[in-house]
Specification:
By secondary structure, the chain is mostly beta strands. It contains one helix and eight strands.
Length: 125
């Protein structure tokens, strides 16, 4: 089965580590985002978060900006979200994976308070 997947998708992704973040980030328009974790995969990283209250139907679409101390350029390649009237859960996948020399990630969003940068310490590899 994995041979077929690799033929279509290339290398089969494997999770390398999960970094718990659990940080509240205030939103400019009120409410909050909780950055739950950053998942480190072969070839990518995934930011997992929740928003409360959930975004309204007319809310602007946005994404995280991800940087690191090694100067890597991350690009959003996929994401999904959903939830209830209590909170919204979401994830966004960025490529590439952090390089071996990176020790810190920074996450920022245009909907969060300008001073609310999420600093994530990467595990030693």
């Amino acid at each position: 089965m994995f041979d077929v997947v690799e033929q279509w998708l290339g290398e089969v992704p494997e999770v390398r580590d999960v970094v718990p973040v659990l940080q509240d980030v205030p939103l400019v328009q009120g409410g909050r985002i909780i950055v739950v974790a950053v998942e480190l995969w072969t070839g990518s990283l995934v930011v997992r978060w929740a928003q409360s209250p959930p975004p309204g139907r007319d809310a602007a679409h946005w994404s995280w900006v991800v940087t690191d101390d090694a100067g890597t350029e991350y690009r959003l390649c996929s994401g999904n979200s959903g939830g209830s009237d209590r909170f919204w859960q979401a994830l966004a996948e960025f490529r590439p994976a952090p390089p071996p020399g990176a020790v810190r990630l920074q996450l920022w969003s245009p909907v969060t308070h300008p001073a609310a940068v999420v600093d994530v310490a990467l595990p030693l590899r």
